[in-house]
Design a protein that fits this description.
The chain is α+β, with helices and mostly antiparallel strands. The chain has one domain: HIT family, subunit A, CATH 3.30.428.10. The chain is built from four helices and five strands. Strand 1 and strand 2 form a beta hairpin. The longest helix is centred in the middle third of the chain and has 22 residues.
Length: 169
């Protein structure tokens, strides 16, 4: 008799179950917001570093090494309207993700950016900050959307540590 390998509850095999269970209002389902880049990202399931029933973590534009975007799985545009469990995960699990990132790249400080009116989907931008940054001591300089910037990528070893730490969340 073959033994079926257990999958992590957040495994893509279970994705549809999560979507149905945790998106209590029909309007929150990513399929209902085809113009939302974050809903599209959740639907396409590409480049996801970490996920749980409430949040998804991906790399942002790498104009700062380790720049992450942490977004809610459900489409919601107002922080004050988040379901309590999602709100808890958005804040607490974000801290755990940042701790995992710190173990990997040993940043000096961290900037979290939440702009409720920029992209209409709740998300953080996480900017690890290093004393060697050109913009150290100031808010991170964000390049224009069409501006070409050399990516500041993590090393293979840093990625290995980061992904290992994310599995412990």
């Amino acid at each position: 008799m073959a033994i079926k390998k257990a999958t992590h509850p957040y495994h893509p095999v279970h994705h549809d179950t999560f979507v149905k269970k945790f998106m209590q209002h029909e309007g929150q389902h990513p399929d209902k917001h085809p113009d939302c880049k974050f809903c599209q990202l959740a639907k396409d399931r590409k480049n996801i570093l970490f996920e749980n029933p409430h949040i998804i973590v991906v790399f942002g534009r790498l104009h700062h090494k380790g720049h992450l975007v942490i977004l809610t799985r459900a489409h919601e545009e107002e922080l004050m309207r988040l379901h309590e469990k999602t709100l808890d995960s958005f804040f607490n699990d974000s801290v755990h993700v940042c701790k995992a990132l710190h173990k990997a790249i040993k940043f000096d400080r961290l900037n979290l950016e939440y702009l409720d009116n920029w992209d209409p989907h709740i998300h953080w931008n996480v900017y690890p900050r290093f004393r060697t940054d050109d913009d150290w001591g100031n808010p991170p300089r964000i390049p224009e959307k069409d501006e070409k910037v050399a990516p500041k990528e993590m090393t293979k070893q840093e990625m290995k540590v980061f992904l290992k730490e994310l599995k412990n969340i």
